[in-house]
């Protein structure tokens, strides 16, 4: 009789929508960060890192102050977000 190699069931991850926000330290205090997959990106946003548009369908990052109500959310290109530490001080928009 052949052996059955089955994977143990893993908890399912949500396949649509943004991932849960995580908390990181920013220059002005804690910042919530959420990664948006391309399938969920439906609008055009302006990236504060490069001042270019983020087109629909482009995976990107949304960041906002932890103590805020979310009105200060900023949508960043993933590369711009990853390079934010190499930017000049005081250049967060």
What does this structure look like?
With 93 residues, the chain is mainly beta. Helices cover 5% and strands 29% of the residues. The protein has one helix and six strands; from the N terminus they run E-E-E-E-E-E-H. It has a four-stranded antiparallel β-sheet. The longest helix has 5 residues, at 78-82. The N and C termini lie far apart (65 Å).
Keywords, separated by commas or semicolons:
ATP/GTP-binding protein; 5% helix; mainly beta; 1 helix; 4-stranded antiparallel sheet; two-stranded antiparallel sheet; 93 residues
The radius of gyration over CA amounts to: 18 Å
Largest sheet: 4 strands, antiparallel
Overall form = elongated
**What is the residue-mean pLDDT, rounded to a whole number?**
81
Count of DSSP helices?
1
Q: Please bin the fraction of helical residues.
A: under 10%
Strand order of the largest sheet: 1-2-5-6
The computed structural class is: mainly beta
Strand content: 25-35%
Low-confidence stretches: none
Would you count the extended β strands for me?
6
Tell me the span between the first and last alpha carbons: 65 Å
**Helix and strand pattern:** EEEEEEH
Organism: Glycomyces luteolus
Protein name: ATP/GTP-binding protein
